[in-house]
Design goal:
CATH topology of the largest domain: FAD/NAD(P)-binding domain
Helix content: 25-40%
Shape: globular
Bound molecules: flavin-adenine dinucleotide
Largest sheet: 7 strands, mixed
Number of strands: 23
CATH superfamily of the largest domain: FAD/NAD(P)-binding domain
Strand content: 15-25%
CATH class of the largest domain: Alpha Beta
Structural class: alpha+beta
Strand order of the largest sheet: 5-4-15-16-17-14-18
Number of domains: 3
Radius of gyration: 23 Å
Distance between the termini: 49 Å
Length: 493
């Protein structure tokens, strides 16, 4: 049993720092003494506004009321991502958060669909998915009949403030100012305290490094090392701007590829977040800014936020008595909106593996193994979007198309092409439906289907496919327009 409160010091008050503070104080506040240090002068990265559905589970864990959260962050609903120009210029596909069709014990829906397509009796793959059709028809509701899987678009700055209020209400102490020095125990190398510009010293037992890409504790102090993945994910820069909304918000993120990367469009209740992600080797900052400015619809509200980044992960997320979370632990570009989710899994992992008294190496190793596996699986899913392209209109896309990829990903792509099987590894974030939608969307079409589907007559197959599509259409009929539902459920204005 712990006989004194363990002192947790969180360095950094961006999305990562405040998520960690809110979760630790909510779950273990009575036995922890939590202090968060942040510097308004340094500020936060100011982006990170698209999320994925597991956020709802995390919010439930923290007892967050969804309507209150959405009003506070001007949030909208997200049913997936529309990808434009990724496979080929002028072509679109959708990665939805839903399940497409109906699975059977032996084989996946795609095999029935492939046979149906061969016979000319199947619609587009997405027609068998509620979330896909709802997104494109601009429909959304939360109701018991038409259960829909969703996430959010949110204002990152407001989200950190929302979490801060909850964390402070549960006793988290906030210290404003710059960390001038990270002091270590001379024998163990463990971090002993943070020394502030003001001279104040903040001692701790466990330190969470949430200082963003600089990794003030994990890298600048502990020199943990960084594994770079830029050769697989060549984008290394982004420019973000906010604009006025010109149309009602749609319930999905847009990702539009260009000749040296892609750009995003994230609709919130009060404005739109826009950004251009690019490879600095293939596009200059000025060209990128011009491209972004000429692509936005509404009046520009902010100065361009130019961000350079390195794709990869810290070799150990947990080193000595320091755990890196958020950008301090590594970064995968925002194509599938995974970073905020990874902060939430990091905090959950810490709660599950919380040290029983002193820090033992076995717990550290377990934490690091789980963190590495999560990073690698998500990385491979993102690489898939670049590798499986038919584009060869620019040096950037030719590089992506020809690059060597990780062995596991190569195997998955081959398995899908040969057998229509989206292999799934236990515990991984992106499930069979996600892999299938992206592989098909990027142009990998299985060369055969499972012979078991031939046991159905053509008429039976047609009836089956029609019944699935009809169920989707019936459910669509029960949904409001996205904007109407927002106004009623969580209108912030
Ligand atoms: P930061 O926001 O950089 O916060 C660092 C904190 O540390 C700040 O409070 C700063 O003041 C403090 N600090 C640093 N040094 C000191 C010091 N010396 N003394 C005191 N305080 C200090 N994620 C998603 O999930 N969805 C998205 O759509 C998405 N889009 C993104 C787009 C881009 C271009 C990028 C680069 C990232 C995106 N992300 C996205 C990732 C997301 O922005 C981050 O995961 C999230 O904002 C967490 O950032 P952070 O808290 O780790 O770092």
């Amino acid at each position: 049993m712990l006989n004194k409160k363990m002192k947790i010091v969180i360095a950094g008050g961006g999305t990562a720092g405040w998520i960690a503070a809110a979760a630790l104080s909510n779950q273990m506040g009575e036995i922890l003494d939590v202090t968060l240090v942040e510097s308004q002068e340094i500020g936060t990265i100011g982006v990170g506004e698209a999320t994925i559905p597991p956020m709802r589970t995390f919010h439930r864990l923290l007892g967050i009321n969804e309507q209150e959260f959405m009003r506070a962050t001007n949030a909208t609903f997200k049913l997936g991502i529309q990808f434009e120009n990724w496979k080929q210029i002028g072509e679109k596909y959708f990665h939805s958060f839903g399940i497409t069709g109906k699975q059977t014990l032996i084989t996946d829906f795609i095999h029935f669909w492939l046979r149906g397509r061969e016979l000319g009796i199947a619609n587009e793959f997405g027609d068998y998915c509620l979330e896909y059709k709802a997104a494109l028809k601009d429909r959304f509701s939360i109701n018991d009949q038409a259960k829909i899987n969703y996430a959010f678009h949110l204002d990152a700055g407001r989200y950190a403030s929302f979490l801060r209020a909850r964390a402070e209400a549960r006793g988290v102490k906030r210290v404003e100012g710059k960390i001038a020095e990270v002091q270590q125990n001379p024998e163990s190398g463990f971090i002993a305290s943070l020394k502030m510009d003001s001279g104040q010293e903040i001692p701790g037992d466990l330190f969470l490094d949430c200082t963003g890409m600089r990794g003030l504790l994990i890298e600048q102090t502990l020199q943990t090392g960084f594994e770079e993945w830029g050769h697989w994910l060549p984008c290394d820069s982004a420019i973000a701007i906010q604009t006025e909304s010109t149309t009602p918000a749609v319930p999905y993120t847009k990702s539009i590829a260009h000749h040296a990367g892609w750009r995003w469009k994230i609709p919130l209740q009060h404005r739109v977040g826009n950004g251009l992600v690019f490879s600095g080797q293939h596009l200059s900052k000025d060209e990128a800014l011009n491209m972004l400015l000429s692509s936005v619809d509404g009046k520009v509200l902010t100065e361009p936020n130019v961000i350079k980044f390195k794709t990869g992960r810290r070799k150990k997320s947990w080193n000595k008595n320091c755990i890196a979370m958020g950008l301090a632990s590594g970064f995968l570009e925002p194509l599938e909106s995974t970073s905020i989710h990874m902060i939430m899994t990091a905090v959950t992992r810490l709660l599950q593996l919380f040290p029983h008294g002193e820090i033992r190496q076995s717990i550290v190793d377990e934490y690091n193994a789980q963190a590495e596996s999560e990073f690698v699986r998500i990385r491979d899913f993102i690489i898939l979007h670049y590798k499986a392209t038919e584009r060869d209109d620019s040096p950037f896309w030719r590089y992506c198309k020809d690059m060597e990829i990780p062995v596991d990903l190569k195997h998955r792509m081959e398995l899908f092409k040969d057998f229509g099987k989206s292999n799934q590894v236990e515990g991984e974030l992106f499930r069979l439906d996600s892999w299938t939608q992206v592989m098909l969307g990027q142009g990998i079409v299985p060369s055969s289907y499972h012979p078991i589907v031939e046991l159905m007559s053509e008429q039976e197959l047609q009836n089956f496919l029609k019944s699935v599509a009809a169920e989707v259409d019936k459910n669509i009929g029960m949904l409001s327009t996205h904007q109407d539902f927002i106004n009623k459920y969580c209108g912030a204005m």
